[in-house]
Amino acid sequence: AQKITQTQPGMFVQEKEAVTLDCTYDTSDQSYGLFWYKQPSSGEMIFLIYQGSYDEQNATEGRYSLNFQKARKSANLVISASQLGDSAMYFCAMSRAGGTSYGKLTFGQGTILTVHP
Amino acid sequence: GAVVSQHPSWVICKSGTSVKIECRSLDFQATTMFWYRQFPKQSLMLMATSNEGSKATYEQGVEKDKFLINHASLTLSTLTVTSAHPEDSSFYICSAQRGLGQYFGPGTRLTVL
Lengths: 117, 113
Prior knowledge:
heterodimer, A: 117 residues, mainly beta, 4-stranded antiparallel β-sheet, globular, B: 113 residues, 7-stranded mixed β-sheet
């Protein structure tokens, strides 16, 4: 079974500063994918970034980067230069890369990020 | 690309009635779609996996007869909440798989009175 743990129920950051949202995972699979999604108050799930378990380099997408430490089973999201519009709930998720459970996402509990002006 | 729509975006119904929610992939074909349920300030819980042309696979604890899923085409999956009760009030979100990623619909907020 797969498990995602986000230990920060809420985080606060000043506008223009960087923030790290923690995510640890547990799986017995050798091949898996790690995702981060943003959910604003409107409810839509916005895909931010993806990291494959065999990717040697950390994924980056604009202001988002994923600090992937495979041995520690962590996949922290780093948001640089925070903006007021970054205030939202953030979910870490993982999926199997193959097999009958291919594609099924397991989500963490989420972290509410609040960006202060 | 990879746009997923849901309809309706919100619905209010009386207890005992059935409600159908549609999930469409607008610019790609999706053999696999997923249905999630989310309570306020909580995480998404997978309800079932919807496969085009075959029966849905339900997660443990999800009542198959209560949450009917039909995936009749490569771009449409429907979730019908039968005989809805107030405890079924929730935010229902679908997603469609494309490659290794899942693309989510905007969600449907169901309120059962």
